[in-house]
Amino acid sequence: MIDLVSSDLVSIRNSLQNKEFTAVELLSEYIERITKSSKLNLFNTTNFENALKAAKESDQKIIRGEARSLEGVPIGVKDLFCTAGVRTTASSKILENFVPAYESTITQKLYDQGMILLGKLSNDEFAMGSSNETSSSGPAVNPWKSCSSDKELVPGGSSGGSSGAVAASLCPFATATDTGGSIRQPAAFTGTVGLKPTYGRCSRWGIVAFASSLDQAGPITKTVADSALALKYMAGYDEKDSTSADVGVEDYQQFVGQSIKGMTVGVPKEYEELDLEDDIKLNWHDAINWYKSAGAEIVSISLPHSKYALPAYYIIAPAEASSNLARYDGVKYGTRITGDDLDDLYKNTRGLGFGAEVKRRILIGTYVLSAGYYDAYYLKAQKVRRLIHSDFVEAFKKVDVIMTPTTPTTAFGIGENLSDPLKMYSNDILTVPVNLAGLPAISIPSGLDSQGLPMGIQIITNHFNEGKLFQFGSIVEKSRSSITNQSEWWL
Amino acid sequence: MNDINTTSEVRHTIEGQGGEWEIIIGLEIHAQVTSESKLFSGSSAAFGGTPMSHVSLVDAAMPGMLPVINKHCVRQAVKTGLGLKAKINSYSVFDRKNYFYPDLPQGYQISQFKYPIVGEGEVKVSLKNGEDIIVRIERLHLEQDAGKSFHDVDPENSYIDLNRSGVALMEIVTMPDLRSAEEAKSFVTKLRTILRYLETCDGNMEEGSLRADINVSVRRPGDSLGTRCEIKNVNSIRFIGMAIEYEAQRQVNEIENGREIIQETRLFDVSTGETRSMRSKEEAHDYRYFPDPDLLPLNLEEGFIKEITHELPELPDNKKERLIKSYGLNSYDADILVSDKNYAEYFESVANGRDPKISVNWITGELFSALNKLNLDIQDSPVSSNQLGELIDLISDGTLSGRLAKDVFEIMLETKKNPKLIVEEKDLSQITDESSIEKIVNKIIESNFDKVAEAREKPKLIGWFVGQVMKESQGKANPATVNDLVKKKIGI
Question: Does residue B395 contact residue B463 with C-beta atoms inside 8 Å?
């Protein structure tokens, strides 16, 4: 029996290479645990049969001494990454039977290191949401519960399947994507580490697009060291993605645990004014002390335009989405619901194929791009975006990293915010500015609130400086109190 | 639109019931970029092909697929811009033009809206009356073509072929500088010639490589611009002329009958020669243009543009000037020769060391009529430029008379043999030796002595004698010598 709960990516990788257990044994344990965890509703599609075959091959390679860097390690993949021969739905009815003939660059890179696909993880439909409740396969469930209530909580979104699966030890590493916080917020809600790399750091090729200028893939893992290891194999220039950056990839593990003595941590003064839960505010202040103790200098900085980030984001992202999702029309692939004529085909297919939140964003996006409104909305939002970017540029002249809470609240109950889109959108208030500026950021579990629910600290740094995120992230990881999920209620 | 200065002199009008009308025309030409592969994908951009055989994952807009710009197409656009004497914009942006149609897989066309790759330029057009006009180019931008829908294959279903989806087009937009169907036709012809010189578009209109959207309005001379209608997708030069003539007349009739012109998109019906309404301004799409976030703005380095400038071929206007200067051709002949760079090339090869006027006459006369009859392009001419040159040499050195040369040319067309060989084989060389000719002349005069006296009275009969001599010599006698000798012998 392998203790999956106390295992992480690095330990599993090492155990496999040291032949402490085989890839097949490991995989079988994961399959059993995933099967038992169906209450969490985290997987859209499982890939057990193919995975077993791959695990046997990995074992052969390990025996022959041909093991690659992550040989035989299982991985969960957000259902937004196209996987050849494995159903890819974006958690939407409109793609419910879509099986790509091609593999996304990121997943291919991970397979090339010997990783094995366990299955496709739930997300908010087309990554639009902050709670993983808009998935066509129903809400994914957070493995964490409040100590005072039995109600089921959301795992965050849109990468709630990924965060939930890592938190429930159903995989040691899951891929995810972050457009406005979709990696960091779910990580904060589930006590996992979520990394959103610099825009352009990881290829978008083969990832179902939500908002192309903001979408960025990254890992959700249990530890900072795991995150550093995962990034090394996800990152890299891809000539098939024109927005991917030709910037060297480092061995990020070297930064984990590195001293931060004499370095500077920026704390944005405007964020003090935000409506944050008390425990989260306290936790943030604790983190300031952890950094002081570690020898860093705390600097108060200003991000004056951050208050406009949320409205700007909810113009730019839907605008791009309204265009990106035009291809799902029932003509070429995916769900088709015919009617009397072409207009009927479009209306029926898109009317029944898309869920309410996706439709809402397509409508917002269509509106803000319309003649007569473009300047007032889209163009203005782009100007705001540039101002937000300059705020950060200014800040990083003074500080190495910026530290904030990841979310204003801890995980909320399923159904609680669904009828109030504005309240739901306000979840992204701390994460969205990072996407608008294309910066890298990480969410690190930083403790439990008074209800016993995980909180997260977000560390932001300058473009292509991911190393610092791991360096500063390890301080939080080392300084916080234990965040073990005591009850495995869903098993 | 209304503030554009189009007050230059009135060049052409059409007659309405209540007086003269001026036609104002602007064109948007869609020219397919000559390229192996598509604008944003590696699949073939070749014409035709089995349906759906030139389609990549990107062309079919599969989820997660991303466009990557084809550098060659950018180069072609820059080259074309330089050929149109236009400003090359070192910064340009690809935008998405959003609309739903089954043959538009992405649900948007990638185009350039606010920042095109090429800005203002101009094209000089020689009209049939010998005048030149300058047509200003407003812009040129790169964009994707759509696929093709088939509605007539099956009674129940429509079919779509995406082979053309994503093929690179250049949209070339003129200012409203054209004033008649003839001018528009001459402009498109000239533009096509330039594109072919540059090898940036093959100009094959029947394959859809060059199509025109035509903006037409009418006004009383001196008035401000009228409301325009846009005739979409006209794919032959002749149809462009027909569409403009019909549409201008229609607009004049509407206005003269007290109706207003409604700004709308119209279709030209080839079978009736009429234009008909497709959609009004109110029904027009809102394309919701915005910069394509999958593509970075296009930044052209100065070196890149310079490199292309150096690669530019000699263009028709320069070639014309040079042909006139170096060969002493007249403007008319020069225009014909530069209308196709292969004509000019052929001419220069023939005229090399030979009389240019004789060369151009042979090419535009005998050769063109033969090629026309055979329905061949000059590149496929059965008579090569070297062979035609050799034939002209045989005329110049007196071996062949003009008449004999034409006979030899006919044989060359059929056999593709060199003229010298034909002359040898058929013993066709001209008799220039005076004593030989004199013998024949004497013979004819002797046997037609009765006509000699008559000829002295009516000198026209000289021609008859000359004809008889030529016939006797099987056409080989030098006609001038024959003429002289006949006159001398008869005593005129």
Answer: no
Whether the pLDDT of residue A139 is over 70: the answer is: yes
pLDDT of A316-339, one tens digit each?
A: 999 999 999 999 999 999 999 999
Give dist(CA B153, CA B135) in Å, integer: 42
Q: Which residue of A has its CA nearest to B70?
A: A242
Q: Are B68 and A203 in contact (CB under 8 A)?
A: no
A82:B66 CB<8 A: no
Q: How many domains does chain A have?
A: 1
Considering the domain boundaries, does residue A325 fall inside one? no
**Are the Cβ atoms of B63 and A371 closer than 8 angstroms?**
no
Chain A hits for B64, CB-CB cut-off 8 Å, are: 81-82, 100, 104, 204-209
Which DSSP category does A337 fall into?
A: -
Q: Inter-chain contact A326–B100, Cβ cutoff 8 Å?
A: yes
Tokens of A71: 């040989």
pLDDT in tens, B357-398: 999 999 999 999 999 999 999 999 999 999 999 999 999 988
Q: Are A156 and A192 in contact (CB under 8 A)?
A: no
CATH number for the domain spanning A44: value is: 3.90.1300.10
**Choices 1.10.10.410, 2.60.40.10, 1.10.1740.10, 2.40.37.10: CATH for B434-490:** 1.10.10.410
Say how many CB pairs under 8 Å bridge A and B.
96
Instruction: Show the domain range for A110.
Output: 9-262+399-479
Query: Quick count: other Cβ atoms within 10 Å of Cβ B148?
Result: 15
Report, as an integer, the average pLDDT of A92-100: 97
Cα distance between residue A161 and residue A41, in whole Å: 8
User: Which chain A residue shows the shortest CA-CA distance from B98?
Assistant: A323
Ordered DSSP codes for A23-70: HHHHHHHHHHHHHHTGGG--EEEE-HHHHHHHHHHHHHHHHTT---TT
